[in-house]
Amino acid sequence: MMLPRRALAALAATLPLRPARSDMAGPARIVSVGGAVTETVFALGAGARVVATDSTSLFPAAARALPKVGYFRALAPEGLLSLGADLILLSSDAGPPQAIEVLRAAGAPLHVVPEAQDGPGIARRVRDVAAALGLDGAPLAGAVLDDWRALDAPVAALPPVRAIFVLSAARGAPLVAGGRTHADAMLRTAGAVNVVRGFDGYRPLSAEAAAALAPEAAVMMAHVIEEAGGPDALLRLPAFAVTPLARSRRVVGMDGSYLLGFGPRAAHARRDLARLLHPGATLPDLPARAWT
Amino acid sequence: MSASLAAPLPRERRALALLPLGLLVLAGAMLAGVLLGPARISAAGLFATLADALGLAPLPAEHARDAAVLGVVRAPRVLMAALIGAGLGAAGAAMQGLFRNPLADPGLIGVSAGAALAAVAAIVLGGSLFGAAAGLVGLWLLPLAAFAGGLLATLLMARLGTVGGVASVATLLLAGVAVNALAGALTGVLVFMADDRQVRDITFWTLGSLAGARWAQLPVVLALVGVPLLLLCALARPLNALLLGEAEAFHLGVRVEAVKRLAVVLAAVAVAAGVAFTGLIGFVGLVVPHLVRLGFGADHRLVLPGAALLGGALLVLADLAARSLAAPAELPVGVVTALLGAPFFLWLLRRRGAGA
């Protein structure tokens, strides 16, 4: 049945105006590059609009199942363009710069998301991503910041633990985190001091140096502990056998993207790490959040 | 006059066909490289882009993406691949001729190791030297460093390999081995200093990629790869004479030392300029000259241009595969060329073993 156009227009005018639903506005096909960026997009409720992610986007499970554009430092200009996205969110570390330059020249809808290593930074990033998606980021940003700040005073009251972060220990000297790493930032915000000083990034640690640093606790990604044969095997390594670790036996394992991602789950990761590093300490329970 | 002299021998007849055939293969590869890839281009988009490029009709907005993929991403990439592959092929052919060794490749003269050392230095130290601007500087800093590093390593090798004004092939080879070892060790020191992310960047650089190809780089590549390429082809006759031995070449009137030095420098410039923009791309310089020799004989007048044309075609096709096979991600192109090249290399070794 065909209605005259005029009749259709009249009919439309009688309908109540649809409320401007914020999640219907903005880009419809999103490529998200970077683990924390992807977590933020999904926490904002826009996960269904994501068509592809990079190989470091491991959470939530739905993000892991999407097509992968490769490692975020080795992006493919044509591959990204082939997805027909109307928004490509890039972590500030995405690269290589030459490929980003090609994408820019080709008029790709790029948006570079700022880096974050603390609560206020994460809140800023949430608002930035939300604005790019045409969403209101204030609720999520506020919740993350509230959770983060709720831990500030209790963590500051804890006696700092001398800790190291071990990236890998399966073969050779263990690779530990120095300054300017996410691991270093996470240790400091969870009531620990990173005993490794004097270099940035990850370096192998000799047994002598480990003995001098005298860490009481070692933080690792859970799968790394497994690959190394469990905590007992780890503590037998020369670099750890000579440290207070051998007596305290405090080897803490957490999921890598949860611990180091500095995404919307970071406040919860901070609380979990602080609890593991300070057994028996009282830390506030954070509200259960949909995105954790 | 006997019939056998009047009618060209089969190999000679094939030789006549080499250049047109090579041009045809290269043109076909380049056409495929521009038209194919993970981003589907509609026929309408292609014609709209062509019409726009020829100034016939303005580009309709709905074909803007097709035009960007064709004009901004693929066209410079295919041209770069063709030029750089041609440079690698011709440089490899010249080095195999010069060293009279079928296993020679441009890596032998230290150019790849030197470029890698300098590129790794740019990756690891660029950030601390240039701070926040390193990202921007990086667009040209890394290529510039890699080019200079490759060239310096080759000059060092040529200097060390020359004793009393004579660069004997054996001394040059040993000097090349030493320069490679030294550059490798210094690269190791830098890798030790690098952080986790830089190590990843280094890994990807050593596997090669044309993902960063842009129009702005093409004039540079055209000058620094194209010119040495043509000059190398002009060295075909002296290189042919050298195949007989250095003393024989000298008696044929070839200025042996000058030719050797020139060939090494030209090969180094062509390879260093390519490597500077793409990272290390293996096996093109090794395999392609052999393919040409197997089909058309060892005459450098054929091997040099043939290796250039085929090298260009191979790298264009390898890059097409690199772009397409893992889409929307991308394989490193050095991996693709090595996957094609390594089995061929092994077959070559076994064939040589059986013949000896």
From TrEMBL, chain A:
Residues 29-281 form the Fe/B12 periplasmic-binding domain. Pfam families: Peripla_BP_2. This is Iron complex transport system substrate-binding protein. The lineage of its organism: Bacteria, Pseudomonadati, Pseudomonadota, Alphaproteobacteria, Acetobacterales.
From TrEMBL, chain B:
The chain crosses the membrane at residues 79-99, 111-132, 139-158, 170-194, 215-237, 262-290, 302-325, 331-349. Gene3D superfamilies: ABC transporter involved in vitamin B12 uptake, BtuC. Its main location: membrane. One of its GO terms (biological process) is siderophore-iron import into cell. Keywords: Cell membrane, Membrane, Transmembrane, Transmembrane helix, Transport. GO terms for cellular component: plasma membrane. It is a multi-pass membrane protein. It is found in: Cell membrane. GO terms for molecular function: transmembrane transporter activity. InterPro entries: ABC_BtuC-like (IPR037294), ABC_transptr_permease_BtuC (IPR000522). It comes from the Bacteria. Pfam families: FecCD. Belongs to the binding-protein-dependent transport system permease family. FecCD subfamily. This is Iron complex transport system permease protein. It comes from Neoroseomonas alkaliterrae. The lineage of its organism: Bacteria, Pseudomonadati, Pseudomonadota, Alphaproteobacteria, Acetobacterales.
